[in-house]
Amino acid sequence: MIDLHTHSTASDGTEPPAQVVASAVEAGLTTVALTDHDTTLGWTDASEAARRLGIALVPGIEVSCARGRRSVHLLAYLPDSTHPALVAELEQARDSRETRLDRMVDRMAADGLPVSVESVRAEVEEGATPGRPHIADALVRAGAVAHRDEAFAHLLSDRGPYYVGHYAPDPVRAVEVVRAAGGVPVVAHPLSVTRAGTVGDELLEEMVAAGMAGIEAHHRDHDPDAVRHLVDLAASLDVVVTGSSDYHGDGKQNRLGERTTTPEVLERIEALATGSEVVRP
Q: pTM above 0.85?
């Protein structure tokens, strides 16, 4: 089984990169991708664990993009992690997330919520990409909410009272940068209703014209009608269809391997990649 979308403590997952790989083995996967938000921090530890535990690892990134108020997430598989344009985009995104986090926390603290910049920083692993889930974890630790999902239902929602935006590249620009870095771009959960706006067909077509190679159709945030639509759209655009768990450890209910990708699709992704390679035992 192949799962091409997971997160570790390098961004907003709850398991260290090596433990994500170990959990993938326990779940019966043969291949797993580590796709932390806007960072390659976990690649080394995950690669070492994959070789040791006998599972293939696809190094990746989930690049946070936006067009207007519409949030778009782009999975970048097998890029060159040292490519200057990619490094610059990721650094700018992470720097913006840092300041955005502080502003959100200050707003919440001013309204009497039991959270501070210090308590949120304590939830972020050194060097990891900070994000709203870390605010949620601080709120859980303070007893203000029971789980991340409760925090995101209102307090941390894109439409909530404390939301602050952050820098994110236009999705077409992101596709071009990933391609330039030798990576293979695949849009993540484009019809998810839990995020700030779904990604319409017109934008997906524009991203494909720029070099996007696939659509993550099989995802728990997509109902059957959404899956059918995305599979048909992918066929018409001649791009691959992937399935993934979007695993975050205890941070989400998503289970490793609950949605999977076929070996033939992974082979096509590998054939398109020139930036890095699948790590095999």
A: yes
| Residue 195 backbone phi and psi in degrees, to 5 | -115, 180
Residue 279 lies inside a defined structural domain of this protein: no
Domain count, the chain: 2
Q: Say yes or no: 7 and 79 in one domain.
A: yes
Predicted confidence band of residue 197 (pLDDT cuts 50, 70, 90):
low
Q: Indicate if 115 and 186 belong to the same structural domain.
A: no
CATH number at residue 119: 1.10.150.650
Can you give the pLDDT at residue 253? 85
Residue 280 lies in a domain: no
Q: Which range is least confidently modeled, 132-146, 171-185, 223-237?
A: 132-146
Q: Is the pLDDT score of 69 beyond 80?
A: no
